[in-house]
Amino acid sequence: MWLRCTSRRLLTPFNRALKHGRLNASSWSGKVAAVMPEAAGFQGVTDRATLQEFSHAHSDSFWAAMANHRLTWTSAYDTVQDCDLRRGKVKWFVGGKLNVSVNCLDRHVLTCPDRVALIWERDEPGAEVKVTYRELLEMTCRLGNLLRRRGVKKGDCVTIYISDALAERIRDANSSTVITVNQGVRGGKMIDLKKTVDAAVDTCPNVRQVFVAMRTETPVVMKDRDVAMEEEMAHEEAVCEPAAMDSEDVLFMLYTSGSTGKPKGLVHTQAGYLLYASLTHKYVFDYHDGDVFGCVADIGWITGHSYCVYGPLANGATTVLFESTPIYPDPGRYWETVQRLQINQFYGAPTAIRLLLKYGDQWVHKYDRSSLKTLGSVGEPINTEAWEWYHKVVGDGRCPIVDTWWQTETGGICIAPRPSDPDAEIVPGMAMRPFFGIKPVLVDNEGEELTSKSASGALCIAQPWPGMARTIHNNHQRFIETYCQPFPGYFFTGDGASRTEEGYYQITGRLDDVINVSGHRIGTAEIEDNHCSAVAESAVIGYTHDIKGQGVYAFVVLKKEADITEPELRQQLKDSVSKSIAKYASPDYIQIAQRLPKTRSGKIMRRVLRNVVERDLEGLGDLSTLDDPTAVQEIIQGHQATT
Ligand code: ATP
Ligand code: MG
């Protein structure tokens, strides 16, 4: 949490020091400058090519210079990093103290108090709420004071409710305070979050209090442990002195999407994460002062954390919090929002793009999108057809598409098309180039690094970076085993990738999902990126095959207006895969589905599809992040009809 403590004075000593520039000056102690002379010369450098070069040649000095230049410190760190990937040890800016809310709010209040910090794009179109940096700081202070008065101390974990597996998460985090709303609103539907919280908290004796904010006017039963959040906040002072947090104190823990198994509760810490989120937000999206940044991801997903909240606010941006869905009240919602809020950078997931593509271009053309400068994609590989549509129809062929590869574990974007050159070439459907200070490597099954230019293998990162997760909460051993042990000395991502002659990276899918047909290893993304015009989206998995080892089983969702017979579809798909990869990769079975099972963050859960095809429904595992359980039932029924 961004802990702050009560003070009655309007300009706190901390803010006064900030205003007079003393904090930053003192933070760059002679100590750091003395040991890193190169870093001193790079303070304030913003030329991208120089930064890229510097980050490769002098990694520690680069991060030191960035930390000094971009963050406001309460007291200086004494060691840039203390990491050993072999042992899962990751520490950055050791000994430094800072406060994340000061970095995201106070310092902007001093320079641009009336700039809009957040635009809460409510579910109902046209009902957005704008909150300035001054107002957001005041709200944060009131909440900080309330938490403090209610006994929440520095280091305590507060749970903010977003998902069904709440009780398990609360227990895992040993949280004694929960914050929720009476009801959630999405796509015109009310979701009774408080009821879910009540049921979960009844099984968690550690929870002392539940803060309930009122999102709708529907009253809810308030129990003894419940606190009416807005009412209580109104009684609090609007000033709250920030606590000095250690660089390596926990900032938040967040669970992965659960696409490949039980979600992992990853821990991110203060300084390194904030620096990385701010730097990537600026350079990957080519963000400039005054831009309106629209990341439409759910705030409970890492993308929402890094690119709705921490990155944009650290950079003093105006950031959009999107509460609705891409098709509410109609499939023009995103673009109507872009027009109304004058969004400059739009960042979304391929799943939504594929969905909107099904409804046709007229929903896009209806709205003025001339404010858009950059379009981003995240979460899954973006297939060629979706990429082209996003580029040509949404961006009118003039906005670069940045396909960003990263994970909950990496804290921020690691591979993206244009980190160091805003005019660099972009190849459709490819994440392409590593971010400053990121060293991707490809490794073969034996753990040997593939050194030839063009190669394909397991994607690892060869050296630590400040934004990476520090551990899995309560299970450091699992952290070591998952990320550090598979390829000792490297951070293992779990994804496969290929590299072109030019050194560009393309993600081929998750290694867990790789299909091995007669000795040929094929990434799911390669087969799914087919060119059949009737198909809106597809998912392929490998199933046990007596002769080939594994066969290919494809699930396809057709476009709304698709006019094709089943035999035609089968033939087209087989031809398309044979042509783009090879005959052996073409699907043995094709099941037409209404929809695919997805996580709440919109990722296809191929492990569920595998279980259905292998007829192992007992082993479906953790489904807590599944978006809509009825999709699984439909798939099971469809499977029986297909085989
Ligand atoms: P779990 O780790 O629990 O299985 P998850 O990996 O889906 O869940 P996230 O951290 O939300 O959880 O997602 C990160 C993963 O998403 C990456 O490892 C990668 O497989 C996929 N991904 C993210 N961005 C891209 C992209 N631009 N291209 C291809 N794949 C991507
Ligand atoms: Mg993962």
From TrEMBL:
Protein name: Propionate--CoA ligase
Record-annotated AMP-binding enzyme C-terminal domain positions: 532-603
PROSITE patterns listed in its UniProt record: AMP_BINDING (PS00455)
GO BP term, example: lipid metabolic process
E.C. designation(s): 6.2.1.1, 6.2.1.17
Residues in Acetyl-coenzyme A synthetase N-terminal domain copies: 51-104
AMP-dependent synthetase/ligase domain location: 106-162, 163-465
InterPro entries for the chain: ACAS_N, AMP-bd_C, AMP-bd_C_sf, AMP-binding_CS, AMP-dep_synth/lig_dom, ANL_N_sf
Species this chain originates from: Neogobius melanostomus
GO molecular function, one term: propionate-CoA ligase activity
Keywords from the UniProt entry: ATP-binding, Ligase, Lipid metabolism, Nucleotide-binding
Swiss-Prot/TrEMBL catalytic activity: propanoate + ATP + CoA = propanoyl-CoA + AMP + diphosphate; acetate + ATP + CoA = acetyl-CoA + AMP + diphosphate
GO cellular component assignments: mitochondrion
Annotated SUPFAM superfamilies: Acetyl-CoA synthetase-like
A Pfam family the protein falls into: AMP-binding_C
